[in-house]
Amino acid sequence: MKLLLGLVGAAFAVAAHAQQEIKVGVIYPLTGSAASVGGELRNALELAADIINNGAAGVPDLPFSQGKGLPNLKGAKIKLVFADHQANPQTGATEAERLITQEKVVAIVGAYNSAVTATASQVAERAGIPFLNPESSSASLTQRNFKWFFRTTPHDDLFVHNAFEFLSELQAKKGIKPGRIVTLNENGLWGTESGKLQAKLAPDYKYELVKQVSYPAKTTQLTSEVQALKAANPNLVLQSSYTADAILSMKTYKELGFSPDMILANNAGFTDTEFIKTLGKDAEYIITREVFALDLAKTKPLIKQVNDLFNAKYKINFTGNSSRTFTGLMVLADAINRAGSTEPEAIRKALAATNIEGKNLIMPWKGVKFDATGQNTLGQGILVQVVGGQYNTVWPFAMASRDVVWPMPKWDQRK
């Protein structure tokens, strides 16, 4: 009888412990060509989990800043279970399977690379596990009629529209004409879709797209591609590249003396901390689409308050990538808390009913509210330009912290 009571007590102890810990799987590129950005995303997730579990004094507008865990689950703590997809779609799918079947996670956050998000979320969809995607922007990800997939970031259809809207306003309000346009993109899901959208929208906005060039996603040289761009004699390059190839392209531009009036990038590698850190002054004047900028803190103090916590812990600032990842986990935690349950269906229903106000986010968005496809309808994009080693908001013009520098100085005219 004592043995039986002991076993029952042990079972209750295990159940109580399980209730205190909610396992969330996270899939990111922690090694390989995208390891630098993957490391920053991991830091952002760890900060979010630490705030949820232990609090953030002096940040009252941030959900869970009291640090009492998830109140509706008796103070249960978030436990992150990391998986490394190495920027490989098949590895991402395998790791998603492992997180679900072996680690028994209640939901998954990931996966930065759109091609990996596509495969990993398919696994989650088949298993009936919520998949929260904070950063991947391929428009097709929310066009699959998935029930368990939710994306907080705006997608490339919006971002590419933003780029052309910026060019139109630049011409109308500042008299700057973009001229002949070329595109350069990696040939994965994200880059390919971006290039197609740019080709589709350029004539709609009455711009001349004279050439499109793509390259292998993990290339180690871009000489022939840059020579092809140079031969087209463009004024503007629209570029979609991850970190290693964004840096490689800039080095190759300089080596070959390719100096268009402007490079307008589609985020990703151009907003990784390593981009400016590695290139230094050669990163100057690039314009890139973004979803976040530290200079927006002048009208939204929450940005500085949370970035100060991030910088104190990791000695780096938030980027558009890491800020979105941080926000993604906060949104998922909000849904799990409202669900008051770790049952997948309860979490899915809570995610579908999400309605977070912009004042509670570090993003310059109106909020988070998902449509029937799982897409957040309240996100928006901005454009930033690297000047003085910092990302400065330049569009929308009403939000700008400084004027656009256009054209970029030629390589031999830079100090």
Automatic annotation (TrEMBL):
Bilayer-crossing regions: none
Entry keyword set: Signal
Superkingdom field: Bacteria
Signal sequence bounds: 1-18
Family affiliation: Belongs to the leucine-binding protein family.
Database matches in SUPFAM superfamilies: Periplasmic binding protein-like I
Cross-referenced CDD domains: PBP1_ABC_ligand_binding-like
Protein name: ABC transporter substrate-binding protein
Residues in Leucine-binding protein domain copies: 21-389
